[in-house]
Amino acid sequence: MVHTELRELRKEYDDVVAVDDVSLSLDDGEFLVLLGPSGCGKSTTLRMIAGLEDATSGEIAVDDEVVNEQSPAERDFALVFQQVALYPHMSVFDNISSPLRAAGVDKPTVKERVESTAELLDISELLERDPGELSGGQQQRVAIGRALVREPKAFLLDEPFSKLDQKLRIQLQKELKQLQEEMNITTVFVTHDQEEAMVLADRIAVMDAGELQQIDTPENIYRKPRNRFVADFIGNPTMNFFEVEAGDGTLHVDGVAYESADVPGSADIISMAARPEDILVEPAETDDDRLVATVDLVEMRGSTAYFICQLDGRELTILKEDNAAVTEGDRLALDFDFDAVNFFDETGERVERAPEAEA
Ligand code: ADP
To answer: Does any ligand 1 atom lie closer than 6 A to the CB of residue 37?
Structure first.
């Protein structure tokens, strides 16, 4: 049972607050992804958990024991980084087995553990090769194997796949997810790539400027972003924002009244965020009383397509419905899936709906 907790963990470098009092709790076997823009403090957080960096203040607790003073080896976490560091003159077998041999594990057990790890990672046929004879993806698999072979307490990874090409990255993500579930090993994974985070995580911790913004399931991060930063950061294409005003049971979106809107409990809302799939369109009539946008471009993305539209000098992105016969220059009247959109107050925090309004 490994339960890990960060308690107001903080790191300052001179006048930079790299990690700003981050508190979170990790369940045994959980896959947590630290996600955020470059420089937001993800790596520093991971390095403090690993013991590679001292915390300025706050605690790291493993099964309720504070480990701040323990060395990385004492903490017994496995680490994998973007830069693979294998011993170049040792075979793959010797690379993977090195932590076991260092720990004095007997030869037959070493052989058995290396072989089963290699099988999980689909590198059994590479055990006799040198690292120089492997592709980037194979090298990263070996690094993962070496990290996991000694069955560490937790697995920490910092952008391990970001140097690989897209196809290989997707494959390794899938393999890592399977492996992590099979081993049921508590895992913290750092990335700036939201799609990678969505695929891997049980929960995502979104950070910005050293602060934890939200920690939740991928679905909730996407559907119910806690604030405007998360709403804007998550999703590709990004959210569409509108100014709103609520009163008399009517919602005004960019000044236009939408009677059908189910207005959340608070009158404090000032903005609304709609995902491309939350905007519904119809050909606009000449004197339409809804918001009307003009299609600039129909953007193909493979299985889906988007309308890139202009509305009062700004751009909107709307998911194209299968049967929509829309071309550039068309005028579209906008409606919204008001159960799916999110509302924010003037501090940028999401405003919860009244409970009966929740789907
Ligand atoms: P991320 O992993 O999210 O890209 P980092 O954790 O690497 O971000 O960095 C967070 C902040 O701390 C950045 O502003 C970075 O410049 C700063 N920082 C990181 N390491 C050091 C260091 N060794 N010395 C000074 N500043 C650092």
So the answer is: no
Q: Is 87 in the pocket of ligand 1 (CB under 6 A)?
A: no
- 38 Cα nearest atom in ligand 1: 4
pLDDT (tens place) for every residue of the chain, 359 residues total: 689 999 999 999 999 999 999 999 999 999 999 999 999 999 999 999 999 999 999 999 999 999 999 999 899 999 999 888 899 999 999 999 999 999 899 999 999 999 999 998 889 999 999 999 999 889 999 999 999 998 899 999 999 999 889 999 999 999 899 989 988 999 999 999 999 999 999 999 999 999 999 999 999 999 999 999 999 999 999 999 999 998 777 899 999 999 866 666 566 899 999 999 999 999 999 999 999 999 999 999 888 999 999 999 999 999 998 777 899 999 999 999 999 999 999 999 999 876 554 44
**205 within ligand 1 shell (Cβ under 6 A):** no
What CA–CA distance (Å, rounded) separates 333 from 320? 14
Cβ(34) – ligand 1 distance below 6 Å? no
